[in-house]
Amino acid sequence: xxxxxxxxxxxxxxxxxxxxxxxxxxxxxxxxxxxxxxxxxxxxxxxxxxxxxxxxxxxxxxxxxxxxxxxxxxxxxxxxxxxxxxxxxxxxxxxxxxxx
Length: 100
Hints:
alpha+beta; 6 strands
C-alpha cells in the first residue's frame, strides 16, 4: 500500500468541505475534482452532505483504500472508532485501509 503524500491538509479539507456542500450526494466526475484531490491520483470520489470519500486504490484481491474526510459542523467520535480508520495530522482527515 503506497499512500500518496498530502501536501496541504487544510486545502484538502477546505476543498472537500466546499464539495460536500453541493446539493446532491454521489460520485463526482473526475473533471470536477479540485487540485488537492487530483494530486492524490484517486480512482473515485464520493460525496455526501458531511463526508467525502477519496478512493486511491480499488484493491483487487484485497479491499480498496483511501481517505475519509468528515466535513460536517461536528464529528461524532463513534464515526471514527473503527479499526480501518487511521488518523492523520488533520483532525477531520482519516486514512481508510479497507473500502468496500
